[in-house]
């Protein structure tokens, strides 16, 4: 593709026949904008034109980098999803290296990488997006979840069964699934606690209290008969 035919966006300088200068930063800016739009409107409700307007680039440039709307959605989701998965496996490896971890330690290690995203607006957008992914059509959601989390989730199922020798295989999968549903709801800014709890009782910015409540709740579910 020549400089003449390559789509351009303001703020982007061309450097020779290659890709626009500042490609890495610009790709992230586009994905940040897409993350916020998809989190708000879902896959079907979001257009590339809206993403382009939010990122202050041309729609042609988005197609140049990502190929299609789904290509953008996939790369945007896996950008954080695979990082979460890798962090989960690293934390689990650290626990296993020290000996036989408790259920509470395993649950906390699973939850922590996702909870850490609540510290930034972009991270919070991803948490909402991740919760919304479960309502997207199977052809969009199934493969993305598997690619992002399949390997690490399987390792946690195995670790929890080691920590709970009496836990059957089907029960283990059920309880991991329920753990995922719990944290998706609790971490994704549903504002339900603000609505339910008396004013001043609940602090939505108290991250330590949030992970403590979810960890204790999920641990109790795993240890139940």
Structure described in brief:
This protein is mostly helical. Helices cover 72% and strands 0% of the residues. It is globular.
Description:
This protein is mostly helical and 225 residues long. 72% of the residues lie in helices and 0% in strands. Helix 3 (59-66) crosses helix 4. The radius of gyration is 20 Å and the shape is globular.
Task: Note the main attributes of this structure.
225 residues; mainly alpha; disordered N terminus
Task: Note the beta-strand portion.
Answer: under 5%
Structural class: mainly alpha
User: Topology as H/E string?
Assistant: HHHHHHHHHH
| Terminal residue distance | 63 Å
Count of discrete alpha- or pi-helical segments spanning 4 or more residues:
10
Shape: globular
Q: Helix amount, in percent?
A: over 70%
- How would you state the average pLDDT, rounded? 87
Q: List low-confidence stretches.
A: 1-22
Whole-angstrom Rg: 20 Å
Report on the biggest sheet.
Answer: none
Strand tally is 0
> Based on the structure, what is the oligomeric state of the protein chains?
single chain
């Amino acid at each position: 593709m020549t400089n003449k035919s390559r789509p351009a966006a303001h703020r982007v300088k061309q450097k020779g026949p290659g890709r626009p200068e500042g490609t890495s930063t610009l790709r992230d800016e586009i994905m940040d904008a897409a993350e916020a739009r998809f989190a708000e409107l879902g896959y079907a409700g979001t257009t590339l034109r809206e993403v382009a307007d939010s990122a202050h680039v041309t729609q042609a440039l988005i197609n140049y980098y990502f190929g299609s709307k789904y290509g953008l959605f996939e790369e945007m989701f896996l950008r954080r999803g695979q990082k979460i998965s890798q962090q989960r496996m690293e934390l689990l490896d650290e626990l296993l290296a020290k000996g036989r971890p408790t259920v509470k330690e395993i649950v906390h290690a699973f939850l922590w990488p996702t909870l850490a995203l609540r510290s930034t607006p972009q991270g919070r957008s991803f948490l909402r997006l991740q919760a919304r992914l479960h309502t997207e059509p199977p052809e969009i959601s199934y493969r993305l979840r598997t690619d992002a989390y399949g390997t690490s989730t399987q390792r946690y199922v195995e670790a929890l069964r080691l920590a709970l020798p009496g836990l059957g295989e089907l029960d283990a999968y059920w309880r991991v699934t329920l753990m995922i549903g719990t944290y998706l709801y609790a971490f994704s800014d549903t504002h339900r606690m603000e609505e339910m709890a008396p004013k001043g009782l609940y602090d939505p910015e108290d991250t330590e209290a949030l992970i403590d409540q979810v960890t204790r709740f999920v641990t109790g579910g795993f240890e139940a008969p």
